[in-house]
């Protein structure tokens, strides 16, 4: 193992409930109804993928770029004003532990860069990452492995030498397709919503169940 790549939403930040709420609000502003259950299959995927599908299903003449931008605006307003979006238990300690052991780290998230940087700076871990990638800037989103292949390349190592920490089915699929070792955090938010992360190499119920030393000891 030469490097570790983290997803963000649901792994570092307990933000999925807020994302669902703001997606529904953005759609409502454009006259499209959506339930929380309809959002769940899109965990781990980009806002572009989510809104593109809903625009097609509604046959509405809506600018994808415009509604995505509105959702991100609503989300940042929500987290800035409400402040009730917290780090996942054990995530920050794990990041700092890996950094203390001089393990190269990358952040590979489907979120937009503004959200990524806001949270990493808020939680004091922005400078811990050697590489920060936003899937919203790439041609394909998870479960396509593009973001993990690029993260490994920017870290200067092969994807098969990286450990990826994910929580959503799309992200686990992307990590395994890239050839990486994948640890899946079984986020309780996803319980009973059809998320299957069983293809991961290791499943944990809490990030406190793994340590920097345990990850460093993974033989891949």
TrEMBL record:
Organism: Pectinatus haikarae
UniProt superkingdom: Bacteria
Family, similarity comment: Belongs to the HAD-like hydrolase superfamily. CbbY/CbbZ/Gph/YieH family.
Cofactor(s) needed for function: Mg(2+)
Molecular function via GO: hydrolase activity
Gene3D superfamilies: HAD superfamily/HAD-like, Putative phosphatase, domain 2
SUPFAM superfamilies documented for this protein: HAD-like (SSF56784)
The protein, known as: HAD superfamily hydrolase (TIGR01509 family)
UniProt-listed InterPro entries: Beta-PGM-like, HAD-like_sf, HAD-SF_hydro_IA, HAD_2, HAD_sf, PGP-like_dom2
Pfam family, one: HAD_2
Taxonomy of the source species: Bacteria, Bacillati, Bacillota, Negativicutes, Selenomonadales
Sorted UniProt keywords: Carbohydrate metabolism, Hydrolase, Magnesium, Metal-binding
